[in-house]
């Protein structure tokens, strides 16, 4: 069956025809590609067309689609049982590997998604500090839990307002929202409500509204203010964790948070999330402490196997190679007239604008040009994330043959952007 036929049916089953909104292609227009099968950096859609994938399931697939070693590990694990609802040795193996890679994680808990990791970390921070208020940054995404679908309220920075229907105002008001790169408002917010804050949460490499690279001093000052006011600093490393360095953004920036949240790569393509960090804070989590958090499928043995098979390959040399390779792709992107491609590790943000550090600085024209580029590159067999506010994800599967295909595609469309 074709993409069109499948999507027509999908619309009768699912809101917008999809299981997660950005997949609906509403931003770029057209019919979403139905993935039929994938391997390495390539996938085939239900029309039988092949595409070079630069979205890679939004981050988990740092080794590529259907990596043989991950498949073998999953295969072995699944024959020993799909879920136990009880402890199993694979959780320990993955935990050991995580502690090797991220030294500040003293204790951790596995969950099943990034959203769940963030939601649980915030509850732990609230339980630990006995405070209710949290601070987040406009332009960062932390999953879809109530307290985080919040923007700055009008007037006072103190009380947030919901960005989604269905989020109670009373919950949104417990979240304070500050713009990225706005040191002055950050200082003022801590001066006003610092001692009421349980936690401050940030994507240290904000990569969910484009790639909004922050000045290091902004993040360093946030660390200082959290320490001064007894606020739990949470780095949401669901994207940056295990992607930009073995120890994620915390390692690369040289800033240690109190808790970290992880997802995407950590499950190697299976649903895994994790929160962890200081053992005194994690000590409040049940059954050691009074903060309840649980999961039927948490620490799922098959998912643990996929995660471990992935993490075993993520050595310092792996990241050095990926960095060098990713730089070539950014250069290739920039041969398109007017296009800039900020990059951090293997995260790339193709945008027809330069020097953006806040999502509200992105111009409408930059996004409409991206939408044209998305369509043009699809026509050349290259699949970008279907929104100009999303970053492209590269990985070990994006080698020289893929780069050659990409360069050819870019050369074919470049003249339309001159
Ligand atoms: C993807 C993402 C999440 C949410 O993770 P899900 O697994 O989609 O629930 C949270 N935080 C960040 C930084 C993310 O990129």
Structural class: alpha/beta
Low-confidence stretches: none
Percentage of residues in DSSP E strands: 15-25%
Strand order of the largest sheet: 4-12-11-10-9-5-8
CATH topology of the largest domain: Aspartate Aminotransferase, domain 2
- Radius of gyration equals 21 Å
Run of helices and strands: HEEEHHEHEEEHEHEHEHEEHHHEEHEEH
Main sheet overview: 7 strands, mixed
Corresponding CATH architecture of the largest domain: 3-Layer(aba) Sandwich
Corresponding CATH superfamily of the largest domain: Type I PLP-dependent aspartate aminotransferase-like (Major domain)
Tally of DSSP helical segments: 13
DSSP summary, beta strand count: 16
Mean pLDDT: 97
Shape: globular
The ligands bound in this entry are:
pyridoxal-5'-phosphate
- How many angstroms separate the termini? 38 Å
Roughly what percent helix? 25-40%
Counting structural domains, the number is 2
CATH class of the largest domain: Alpha Beta
Protein architecture, described:
The protein is built from 13 helices and 16 strands. The protein has 418 residues and is of the alpha/beta class. The chain folds into two domains: 3-62 and 314-417, Aspartate Aminotransferase, domain 1 (Alpha-Beta Complex), CATH 3.90.1150.10; 68-311, Aspartate Aminotransferase, domain 2 (3-Layer(aba) Sandwich). The chain starts with a helix and ends with a helix. The mean pLDDT is 97. The structure holds pyridoxal-5'-phosphate (PLP). The site of pyridoxal-5'-phosphate has 13 residues, from α4.
């Amino acid at each position: 069956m074709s993409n069109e036929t499948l999507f027509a049916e999908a619309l009768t089953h699912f809101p917008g025809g999809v299981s997660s909104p950005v997949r609906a292609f509403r931003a770029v227009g057209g019919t979403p590609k139905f993935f039929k099968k994938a391997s390495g950096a390539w996938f085939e859609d239900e029309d039988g067309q092949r595409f070079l994938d630069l979205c890679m399931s939004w981050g988990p697939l740092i080794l590529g689609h259907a990596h043989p070693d991950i498949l073998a590990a999953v295969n072995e694990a699944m024959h020993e049982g799909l879920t136990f609802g009880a402890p199993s040795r694979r959780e320990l193996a993955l935990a050991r590997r995580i502690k090797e890679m991220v030294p500040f994680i003293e204790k951790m808990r596995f969950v099943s998604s990034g959203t769940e990791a963030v939601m649980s970390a915030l509850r732990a921070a609230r339980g630990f500090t006995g405070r209710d208020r949290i601070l987040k940054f406009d332009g960062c995404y932390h999953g879809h839990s109530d307290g985080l679908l919040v923007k700055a309220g009008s007037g006072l920075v103190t009380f947030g307002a919901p960005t989604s229907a269905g989020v109670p105002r009373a919950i949104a008001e417990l979240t304070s929202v500050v713009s990225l790169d706005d040191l002055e408002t950050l200082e003022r917010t801590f001066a006003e409500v610092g001692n009421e804050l349980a936690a401050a949460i940030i994507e240290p490499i904000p990569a969910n509204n484009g790639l909004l690279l922050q000045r290091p001093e902004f993040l360093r000052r946030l660390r200082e203010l959290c320490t001064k006011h007894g606020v739990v600093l949470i780095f949401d490393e669901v994207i940056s964790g295990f992607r930009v360095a073995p120890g994620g953004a915390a390692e690369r920036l040289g800033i240690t948070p109190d808790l970290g949240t992880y997802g995407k790569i950590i499950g190697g393509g299976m649903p895994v999330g994790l929160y962890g960090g200081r053992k005194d804070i994690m000590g409040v989590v049940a059954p050691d402490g009074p903060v309840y958090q649980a999961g039927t499928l948490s620490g799922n043995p098959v998912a643990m196997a996929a995660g471990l098979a992935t993490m075993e390959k993520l050595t310092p040399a792996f990241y050095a190679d990926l960095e060098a390779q990713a730089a070539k792709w950014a250069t290739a992107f920039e041969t398109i007239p007017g296009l800039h491609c900020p990059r951090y590790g293997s995260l790339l943000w193709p945008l027809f604008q330069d020097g953006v550090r806040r999502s509200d600085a992105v111009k409408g024209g930059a996004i409409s040009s991206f939408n044209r580029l998305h369509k043009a590159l699809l026509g050349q067999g290259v699949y970008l994330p279907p929104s100009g506010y999303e970053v492209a994800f590269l990985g070990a599967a994006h080698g020289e043959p893929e780069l050659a295909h990409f360069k050819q595609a870019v050369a074919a469309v470049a003249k339309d952007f001159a």
